[in-house]
Amino acid sequence: MPTLEELGWTAELDHYFTQLGHPDWAPGRIARVDRERFGVWTASGEIPAELSGKIRDTSADHVCVGDWVALTLHNGLGIMHARLPRKTSISRKAAGEQTAEQALAANIDAVLLVCGLDADFNLRRIERALTLVMNSGASPIIVLNKADQCDNLPAKITLTEQVAPHMPVCAVSATTGLGLEELRTHLKAQQTFVLLGSSGVGKSTLTNSLLEQTRMQTGALRSSVEKGHHTTTHRQMWLLPNGALCIDTPGLRELGLWGSDEGLDVVFPEIEALARTCRFHDCSHEVEPGCAIQAALQDGALSSERYESWLKLRREYAFVEQRQSEHKRRQADKELGRMYKRAKEDARRRKPGFR
Ligand code: GDP
Ligand code: ZN
To answer: Do the beta carbons of residue 114 and residue 143 sit within 8 Å?
Structure first.
């Protein structure tokens, strides 16, 4: 049975937990989410758990796989009372028209950004996904899968390294095992990673290869949760033989951009460096005179693909940010409305003659 430390428990988390001031609560990490059913890893093994009414009411986006929670045990069922602060999280726009954030995985150290080296290979898509990873706070590792199907591997690795400055790039084959040893050296014990990438790039195959027999080994840990119902688990955390933790979340497949455009600086450092030397402080880098970016495009120092990709992402982030602030304003209005109603209700109650 893994210890809490082996599951990623830190002194910082311990501090937060102590501050909750409930000696009767125990810490645990959510390893499995299947609609409203949860499997939580605790110091004494995995237990099935539910959210307390309080936690459900107080946060719209309550918990997700990878979260640390505080819980109590009642006849073998855990009740989760609080969520500990997240170090990082991977979010997407909640489904539908709402511009609300939905966390898909929490406390992630590394993101394996999986791309196919076949027809799926697309630098623009890598850039886009990287900006999202940079927003999450986790560090990216770029995994070029299906290396067995690629005839110009060195060239594709070089192209990838150009759009992913200072980030590890690993070419692997999930089916033949090529490059997996090197990839494993990036996955450290007690660190949590997720796989991210479009459908068909080989995430499931790669997860299976990385886990080896882990799925069978962890069987003992999960029997209590799965007993008695057919499980269609959607999100799950696994402990790898080398001690790293892998979160498997098919929900990460279609990615809506979320968050701020801060990630753009990291993913397009050459463009951000140019932008600082434009004549106008508020240059849009599209039409102004003295634009260093336009000049670099003219003399070929900057590729137009990189520029177009950056411009497109910048517009998208601006749009998302605007929608986010509108959403926040609407939420604030709603909260104000509720406060007003409560105040009126209180005043009515205080009136003489109220029963
Ligand atoms: P996912 O949608 O990202 O989970 O992708 P899958 O793991 O389901 O893989 C999609 C297809 O690609 C399957 O037919 C796999 O067998 C195949 N595949 C995955 N990895 C590799 C690889 O390294 N080389 C080759 N040739 N095929 C692969
Ligand atoms: Zn400019």
So the answer is: yes
pLDDT of residue 234: 62
Mean pLDDT of the chain: 84
Q: Ion ligand 2 — residues with CB under 5 Å? A: 278, 283, 285, 291, 293
Model confidence at 220, in pLDDT bands (50, 70, 90)?
A: very low
b/e map 286-325, b = 16+ CB within 10 Å: eeeeebbbbebbeeeebeeebbebbeebbeebeebbeebe
Ligand at shortest distance from the CA of 179: 1
- Under DSSP, the state recorded for 7 is G
> pTM to 2 decimals?
0.76
Res 108 pLDDT > 60:
yes
Task: Give the pLDDT of residue 43.
Answer: 93
Q: Which atom of ligand 1 is nearest to the CA of 201?
A: 3
Q: What is the spatial distance between Cα 35 and Cα 4, in angstroms, rounded to a whole number?
A: 25
Residue 245 CA to residue 250 CA, distance in Å, equals 16
Interstrand relation of 101-106 and 89-93 (parallel, antiparallel or unpaired): antiparallel
Q: Can you tell me which residue has the tokens 């240059």?
A: 283
pLDDT in the model for residue 170: 97
CB atoms within 10 A of CB 1: 11
Residue 337 burial (10 A CB sphere; 0-12, 13-18, 19+): exposed
Alpha helices, DSSP H only, in 212-303? 214-217, 219-226, 262-267, 269-275, 292-298
Per-residue pLDDT of 175-184, as tens digits, reads 999 999 999 9
| 73 in Cβ contact with 26 (< 8 Å) | yes
Tokens of 71: 């819980």
Q: What whole-number distance in Å separates Cα of residue 148 and Cα of residue 177?
A: 10
Instruction: Kindly list the protein residues whose Cβ atom lies closer than 6 A to any atom of ligand 1.
Output: 145-146, 148-149, 173-175, 197, 199-205
